[in-house]
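User: Good morning. I'm curious how adenosine-5'-diphosphate would be positioned relative to this chain. Could you predict the structure with it bound?
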Amino acid sequence: MTILTSVLSDLLKSLPNLRPQLYFKASLTALSHAMEDQVLAATFNQPLIIASFQHERFYRQEAHRYQRLAEKSNQIYVLSVLETEFRNDSQYYEKVAFDIDDPLSQEWHLVVIAENYSTCLVCHESKGSLRKNQELPDSIPSVDIDTARRFEGIWTYDRIVTLKAAELLLKRILLYRPELQEKVRAIMDRFNIDQENQDSMISTQYGYDIDTNPFVQRLVTYLQASQYKLHKAYRSIAAQARKESLVNSISTAIRRSLDPHEILQVAAQQLGTHLEACRCLIYRAQVTDIKATIEHEFLDRGVVSVLGQTWDLEYNPLFQEITQHLEGVCVADTITDSRVKRSASLSAIVKKFGVRSWLIEPVLFQGRLLGIVELHYCYFPSHVWQKGELDLVKAIATQIGAALIQAESFSHLEELNQQLEALDRTRSNLIAITGHELRTPLSTIQVCLESLYSEPDMPLELQQVMINTALADSERMRKLVQDFLTLSNLESGRVEWHPEALIVQECVDLALSRLRTRKEEIPQIKTYVVDSLPLVRADGDWLVEVLAKLIENACKFTPSIGEITIDARSNEEMVEVIVGDTGRGIEPQRLEIVFDRFYQEEGALRRTAGGTGLGLAICRQIVTGWGGKIWAESRGKDQGSQFHFTIPIVASDR
Ligand code: ADP
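Assistant: Good morning! Here's the predicted structure, ligand included:
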């Protein structure tokens, strides 16, 4: 059997004045239901109903309606493609299974004819309507793709059109079910369906005495439903837009700033406001941390702040859950949650800060935990978490993770930059030193040795002077090179520290004994270090080094009739050591620059007291290394100086 004509095109051929229109599937569904409801509501006498479905599944959705319609008429014909179960059958109504190749499988028809009523819907699916729609993004559900399918055709109350459509369809039915010849003939005769002179037989086309209310009602209901769907879609689009703008504003903050504090504050504020939380907290935490301090907070009005509070992480089952699965944890209601009930620290937080619903989301970067985002809802009833909210928190946490890593890399870069700059300065200084400092003693040594070599008859005393000068200058060079290396090692962090508990007096004694072996004539030194001074925590060698350098300076710049004092006092955290002298003093504007590298008041080349100009710079590096401070005080020229420095006291004493 070859039937390759479309009912719509046959209809348009027979009635060339008809103008087909475009319909979405959703509209056709509404119209079909309205047409069927009209029959169910009206008191037609055995109307003719022909419905053709493209697929079995569409028929199945409507089968129950046709069973109800079957109570109204014995002239119902339902067509559908022969796919799996749909077969020719006459049980409730006439089922007509057509071939898959039949153009009917691309068409949608519904014809209703009664004595004083007729309507029909004859449509053909537009080519490519589905294909186009299938290209829609995954986010659009398939049901929406289905309703967006487009058809072209006719929907009308016109009796001539309806009778023609019925004729075409009934003839098609007879091809599949010739045994229905008699039944079909009867209905054709009853409504003059294939009569040549249809026009004259139609008494009234319009002005039916029919209640069209069910039809209108159905359309209005459908319109309402579509409107509701549209409203829902708008709402979800608006929520999506809000989410995107939130993520954007946080991303902008991240791009604008490299200050993690600012980034986290913006994130907490935006997220808290958007999700209407009572609190939004962000803090740094690593998997191995046992505690965390709340650093950033958004607070709703009237909610108690937790800023600066310390959260226990070690015995916190929620945090443990996060570190195990690296996934967020959600507590719908803290009152009933067993994890909260079992943990004393969680119960304490819940009680003290009134947390009712709790969300804890990890801030991760490449699987590494960097911090936590928390949301608290404190009111009754408990908050019901929506999937969209959880997704949003996750998206923000991801942004925060990237921001933190970015800020971390930047600060590393800055540190590296500073180190490079310091290295560069050191290198330039080295060149300056080579030029000015090393060259002078080196040429002196050279002159002395050359004279000794070229004048073998030189008097013995002069030879002695030459040798002593060469030795003194080579010692000066040795010291300079040694101090320079020490300072570079300290500045580049290549020094190993061995902190230990130390008695200050013992270190002072060691420094003094080192000094006494070197100096012959030194001013009087008095020490006032009391026995009750607490132990200090520092590297012993370096502490002795600082003391020795300060005492040595005091000796250098104080006449031998002057006096040097070593004093020490303590507060709760630090011991302060003061090395004072009655020497030449320091002018107020130079009190700070004396700690600069290579600073010497009289200039390197005019130095009288010896030294390298690196001693105080070395002392500052050492003292800062153990967390202390060093500074100079003096009432001015010839008023003596005091050098102060602090050392942390041993923690257990506190
Ligand atoms: P130097 O090797 O020249 O002593 P320092 O770094 O130890 O290098 O000291 C830098 C400069 O600080 C000294 O050259 C001197 O001008 C000044 N200074 C240091 N200690 C004293 C002090 N006790 N009295 C006066 N000036 C001092």
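The CA atoms of residues 329 and 360 lie 5 Å apart. Confidence is low (pLDDT under 50) at residues 130-143, 203-207, 604-608.
Let me know if you'd like a different ligand tried.
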